[in-house]
Amino acid sequence: MALRAAAKTAATAATAASPRGLRSLLFSTSTFPFNLPQSQTEKPPPAEPSTNLFVSGLSKRTTTEGLRTAFEKFGQVVDAKVVTDRASGFSKGFGFVRYGSLEDAAAGIEGMDGKFLDGWVIFAEYARPRNTLPPPQNSFPRGVNNTRFQS
């Protein structure tokens, strides 16, 4: 009986020191990299104005023609492209619109950012230039003749 009473007091003391128990250990606000304060995280610099716009939040059913017609209301669209999945052919949820002038591009952002297209809220912003990727490295050393992977 005394042993049970001692165990209860130890458990009560542990609970008083840590009100949520194991949950506080697992989900505490620590200095782990995922819990960095907002001031320490780097935000990308704003994109420079250009005639090319990045449009995100597109529906899977949005087509290139639908994107073009939605943005043509704000200026001369030179090119519009919805990026699609190779296997399914559906939209990946983003695309690009290129205008003839900077003024048309600014009007396109002003007119379509935060608006509905095919039932989804879309976001339009100036497109950032693509980052250059390093050349792919083969998994086989040079000079190795592996006939299984030859075409």
UniProtKB/TrEMBL annotation:
GO molecular function: RNA binding
Chain intervals for the UniProt region annotation (Disordered): 132-151
Organism annotation: Coffea arabica (Arabian coffee)
High-level lineage: Eukaryota, Viridiplantae, Streptophyta, Embryophyta, Tracheophyta
Domain RRM: 51-129
PANTHER family in the cross-refs: NUCLEOLAR PROTEIN 8 (PTHR48029)
Statement: the UniProt record of this protein carries the keyword RNA-binding: yes
GO biological process: mitochondrial mRNA modification
InterPro entries with a match to the protein in the record: Nucleotide-bd_a/b_plait_sf, RBD_domain_sf, RRM_dom
Pfam families: RRM_1
Signal peptide: none
Keywords, in A-Z order: RNA-binding
GO cellular component: mitochondrion
Gene from which this protein is expressed: LOC113688984
Protein name: Organelle RRM domain-containing protein 2, mitochondrial isoform X1
